[in-house]
Amino acid sequence: MRRASVLLRVGVPVAILLELGAFLGSLSGSPVALGEGWGATREPDVGVWLLLGAGCLPLLGLSRAPRAAALLCAGSYVAYILSGYEFGLTLPPMLVALVLAAEGRRLSAWSLAGGCLAATLVWVDGRARGILDPDVGLLVWVAFGAVSAIFFLIPPLIGELLMARRRVRFPEAAPAPEAGLSPSGGRPPRERG
């Protein structure tokens, strides 16, 4: 994870501070209600703080144990969102997906992003199921679906672009592709002669 050191040095503290600020801000505001029938979200309790810590603290070990950090950040997000809290805690898995993809861990990055997106769509379904006005229901699905896709699919895409750029500029220093993603399973191609 040496090549992602700038992402880590800047991204980790920024993500942690922004998540903490978002949580503190959400404590004083009222929950989002997008229309009549919008499902109620769970009131903040001790679980919010535990999941916040479990979602943000693994970022500190992202350079040493990227897969463990990815599992903890994504697991915390999925547990948080499926527990019915207000939408949030997205930055840690977004940052992890970006860093993993930039380091050539494509399968891990896209799996994390897909899992978090799927959990978010389950959350949206739970909130939007009771909306009586079909136009509002459609708007909720389009809005939350688009925002969720942007949140979870753009970071690994940016990571892929960073990895590709690095491979073009510095072929000797670029990470090798993750095994199993290329037809050769990550092995160098054989020379034909």
Automatic annotation (TrEMBL):
Is Membrane one of the keywords? yes
Name the record gives this protein = Uncharacterized protein
Which residues are listed as membrane-spanning? 7-26, 46-65, 77-101, 107-124, 136-158
UniProt keyword annotations, A-Z: Membrane, Transmembrane, Transmembrane helix
Q: Which organism is it from?
A: Nesterenkonia xinjiangensis
